[in-house]
Specification:
Blueprint (H helix, E strand, L loop, with lengths): L6 H5 L9 H12 L4 H7 L4 H9 L1 H6 L15 H19 L6 H18 L14 H11 L2 E4 L9 H18 L7 E8 L7 E4 L16 E8 L5 E7 L6 H6 L11
Antiparallel strand pairs: 1-3, 2-4, 4-5
Length: 264
């Protein structure tokens, strides 16, 4: 038995780049231009058998109109589904340019809408919802086919003085023990902000995009103040602070603030 590979040898091992459809088309064009298979194999660091397989499927490769980054051709897939995915990628790119967030649920909903529209344009067909189900498996395969990846929207980083907070917790516990306060007598009151118009932080991008363009998230917010005792049997009615004392929606719908579950 040979010696095991060391960790340093595994770290230095390079990962071979996938052969995309775009690369396959380049290989086919070079072969048609007079290059031999051996030269092409050395240029792309591939086996000659791999280049030979690409040449055997050259007609299907050249006839495929795929988005940049696609690595394979799916077999026995309806043409309408391929058109749905192409239009879906174009729609995602438009959303990226506008700085909009696209989640898995939004993408699946758009895919179903595109499928319904395309099926309605074909005579003699029906676009029933059960004909095309945007399952989790379909979504994962769609991401793999078109190089879709997920990124996080970064906002302002929150900061706090953890050392001071830890010191206060020790001092406060000493006061509770010394004075003999019961959990029912100890209350905690804290405020928090609710950004009720903020979009999700995560979104999906096509392979050509590594990051989002400049985007300023909606920061319309309201402030909530909560208070309860340590035993949890007494919770004070929350206090809500908003930039408008009497919003237009309250006047339009005749909202009685006294009947709200918060102190406005």
């Amino acid at each position: 038995m040979g010696p095991k590979k060391t960790a340093s040898a595994q770290v230095g091992k390079s990962t071979r780049e996938k052969v995309t459809l775009e690369m396959k088309k380049d290989i086919t064009r070079k072969y048609d231009g007079g290059r031999c298979i051996a030269d092409i194999a050395r240029e792309y660091s591939r086996n000659a058998s791999t280049i030979g397989t690409i040449m055997a499927n050259r007609e299907k490769i050249l006839a495929t109109d795929a988005v940049k980054g696609v690595t394979g051709i799916a077999r026995n897939r309806p043409a309408v589904l391929e058109e749905v995915e192409k239009l879906l990628v174009i729609w995602m790119e438009e959303k990226q340019c506008g700085g909009d967030t696209v989640t898995e649920a939004v993408i699946c909903e758009k895919a179903r809408a595109l499928y319904t529209d395309l099926m309605a344009q074909q005579p003699g067909t029906s676009a029933e919802p059960e004909d095309f189900k945007t399952s989790r498996g379909w979504f994962e395969r769609f991401k793999a086919r078109f190089g879709i990846h997920r990124v996080v929207r970064h906002g302002e980083a929150a900061s706090s003085d953890t050392t001071t907070a830890e010191d206060f917790a020790v001092e406060f516990l000493e006061v509770i023990t010394t004075e003999g306060y019961l959990p029912e007598q100890v209350f905690n009151c804290d405020e928090t902000s609710l950004f009720w118009k903020r979009t999700p932080k995560r979104t999906f991008l096509t392979q050509e995009k590594s990051k989002l363009p400049g985007h300023k998230p909606m920061k319309d917010r309201l402030t909530l103040l909560f208070c309860a005792n340590a035993s949890g049997d007494l919770k004070i009615k929350p206090l809500l602070v908003y930039h408008s004392k009497n919003p237009c929606a309250f006047k339009k719908h005749k909202v009685d603030k006294a009947r709200l579950k918060v102190m406005w």
